[in-house]
Predict the structure of Type 2 DNA topoisomerase 6 subunit B.
Amino acid sequence: MAEQQIGIDWDEDFDRLTPSQFFRKNKQMLGFTGKIRSLTIVFHELITNSFDACEEAGILPDIDIELMRVDKEHYILRHKDNGPGIPEDYVMQVYCMMFAGSKFRNIQSRGQQGLGCSGCVLLSQMTTGKPAKVISCYKEGDEIKGVKMKFQMDVENNRGILMEREDYPAESTGVCIELQFKDVSYSMAEQGAFEYIRRTMIGNPHAQITFRDPTGHKYIFKRAADIVPVQPKEVLPHPKGVSADDLMTMAKNTDKRRYKSMLTASMSRMSNKRVDEIAEMTGIDMNKRPKDITFAEAEAIVHCFKKMKFMAPPTDGLIPIGSDQIEKGMKQILQPEFVTTITRKPVTYAGGVSFIIEAGLAYGGNSGRKVNEQRKSEIMRFANRVPLTFDAGSCAITEALKSIDWKRYGLKDLDNTPLTLFVNIISTQVPYLSTGKQSVSPEPEIVQEIRQATMKLARQLQKHIRSKRAAKEKEKRSKVFEEYVPVIIEEAAKLGETGVPEYQEVLAKVTKRALAELLGEKVEEEVEEEELDAIIMEEFDEMGYAVDEEHSNLNFEEEDDEEGEFEE
Amino acid sequence: MAEQQIGIDWDEDFDRLTPSQFFRKNKQMLGFTGKIRSLTIVFHELITNSFDACEEAGILPDIDIELMRVDKEHYILRHKDNGPGIPEDYVMQVYCMMFAGSKFRNIQSRGQQGLGCSGCVLLSQMTTGKPAKVISCYKEGDEIKGVKMKFQMDVENNRGILMEREDYPAESTGVCIELQFKDVSYSMAEQGAFEYIRRTMIGNPHAQITFRDPTGHKYIFKRAADIVPVQPKEVLPHPKGVSADDLMTMAKNTDKRRYKSMLTASMSRMSNKRVDEIAEMTGIDMNKRPKDITFAEAEAIVHCFKKMKFMAPPTDGLIPIGSDQIEKGMKQILQPEFVTTITRKPVTYAGGVSFIIEAGLAYGGNSGRKVNEQRKSEIMRFANRVPLTFDAGSCAITEALKSIDWKRYGLKDLDNTPLTLFVNIISTQVPYLSTGKQSVSPEPEIVQEIRQATMKLARQLQKHIRSKRAAKEKEKRSKVFEEYVPVIIEEAAKLGETGVPEYQEVLAKVTKRALAELLGEKVEEEVEEEELDAIIMEEFDEMGYAVDEEHSNLNFEEEDDEEGEFEE
């Protein structure tokens, strides 16, 4: 059959889409599914973009958001920041061109895909047909320039179409964008826009957000820490994280004339001496022009990288929140009975991409989620300080936390404990699982780090619960002593036909010492640090997370103490 | 601080990426994470592409796959199909251009993104630097032409670069592609390539796959059903599923001169009479040129669509596997004690996108997964007959199945029952959550349908378990009668000083009848169909899946019986 019917009319049916057309057809891939989620994603994209812009310019973020209700499921959103602004020539590229942006460098930033802002404009246009309105005030030389623009997205050509433009009298730098949306809703629920802002504040105590909600109520989320944010630096790729294909791409795009100078200029920890060693091992002429390198040669070089020892990647490009700040944030929001936090040392995944895991655990008080009057556990996932609200199921953080044997730490299970677990992954290249940036790929090294961090916190919680229990027991035993000893003494006095001695003071001393001895063992019955590490590695093995030896961090040279050290 | 340090050097730092460059940096978004998963995704992309091509041309798919091991984690994959082939001019566009393809029409196909094949070529090139080799044999008029090509992907320009080309003596149509991969591994595990093929066969009993694994072992997965696959048809969008932005896009791209003819030509169920009604309701001049329509007018028209009654979308574009076929597949692979399957009627999500849910439930035998000698439940997710292997957590299918109160159906819980649950969603537009196409967005209508289908199956399982239990009980009671009645009769005979009568035959009759009566009630104690629907709706309400009334299927006109009916 069907010999005559050819299924595809190639000239007619074969299409080439622009990125904007592709995402217009697949807006769920930008995270735009559901009315509540869509609005939360818009908040997420605009806030993270403002934070990134502010921090790169060394400015404490101060953001003003106003959400006005026009009609049922129809809103106007006005979002204003105090960042460095966007030069006029780039405004429409930032907001209307997909896969364009300044986030493709090897720098720690919340955004990294060049999709977020243009996605918001796309959603606005798709649901309302209304143009975007932007005021951008930016420095040009010593002057502050201002421009007010109105534009639409030309989806067929992945670019903006300017509709109106006028000069704007600028006083200070910053961007204000106004967008309209239909088919979205504002919600106070866990996945709604309000909760998103609240969680953002835990990860960003240096920021300030003023939010006027659709009822006109004004919330001011005050800056908790007046710390000038450290500016993240662009870091060059580390040889251990570079693939042959990366080398080929570098060779294509370099302005260096020789392979040698390309290698030293494009990677961290790569000296002339190192290049000479590689030349010797591989026999490759390092004076070749970069464009003449073959894939096989690139592979040979990467093979050397794997065998050589290098200093760990520079980590001054990574700026964690810091365990003190996380503790402050969690205490302020959760009023827990117990809280413990940790910021681990930087390590790497995929061989050479550095990352830092930070974690916090709060117990009791308002920790956890309230479900039918019972408090259950709650996981707060963050990446580069940004709350991850959706797609928890497939995320490295969820996977790591669920894989821990919580019984080992004296908890029945993870679900039914009044716990809030906070995990933040800091990296110049967070491996997001999808364009919606809501979950982190479960790379083995990342899962391992989260497990280790969390297990250390769990051990602290166990100590806390144990000493609480011990204190209770102590009290109980004290009562036993204090109730019965007097009786014994009195009866003994009667039997001995003598007077009752003054025993109260002595008894108090004895019970304290006796109990300390009795309970001391239990309280001190702690696993030593090395033993703990052994337990961790053992659990780790059970989970099957064997770390590729070539890729493990064991292969790095020891480095100076100042470098790569963070408070723990 | 930092007044002089502007963070971004716009001219230097602002980049515009091609789709290929974007996915080169974010290959995990194409599903390429982990060595095992990456290879499975390659199999997935090539197999689904071949199936789609064959079916569109009305050909029974017959695929030959050979995986050769070159070295540790280094393989050559040769994939050959008997499809209609790709015309020479389109070969490099199919394999090297991202966001290009023939899958953007409103037609049921496994692929729909124009990313799959080019993603495989990208991964091959990134890991090995080797070119792709393709032989394509295709019809041109009555002649079969053949071409052999070797090409690379030009990532910077999102296109192919031809390296070699020669004529190939073609006998029959089809495509053979050979790619090399490093850093991938072949595995027999649940998420490995072999299991992927096995599951594919459940969803595609009309296909045949021959697979030679790296050890040289040849597996032939034989065609289970020699049914010529029905060719899916391109269906026009239904008015209930169209947005104002869709109308604007249609207006931009139409070749019609008037709005009226554009509307009737671009949508299903849209007659001249209907357009006149809309004109009357909205006051819009339907003789306008399409390009003159404003967004507000488009909104007004969509508003009318929402209020009007239309016949349900045509569903001859949807080709389910069929409950018989699913049952055959599950029996063959699982040898279950009990199996039940269902193919539901077509319904719609997002107002007007039709879809069909098919489900199967197998119990006992080899159903479920074996975990430490215990059999646990297993969920097999499919979309347009393609197995979904990863990202189960956030998928509509997982969400629906986990939300069912399994205790209602006599099961302890979902996890610890030896069950295999199969769910397939058929649609011209499956709302995938990510570019890796491994999970379906939990649209409320889709979740509802999966729940309803599965609950009906669960009810069947409950009946089966009950009658099994009843049969056991019956046997037990029969024994009681048969053991004790003779004793009573004999003792009675003794007391009455008379002989023991011939009671065996009578007893057998009595116990059968008596027990049938005793147990009959229990066996028949079934919930009627309407009552079941009430239970379903009640559970549904509890879950908070209120279906938007405007979007529900209640608003469709009744249609002829022939239309949209599938075996159930």
Q: What stands out?
A: Chain A has 15 helices and 18 strands. The first strand of chain A starts at residue 15 and ends at 16. Chain A has three domains: 19-221, 239-307, 315-568.
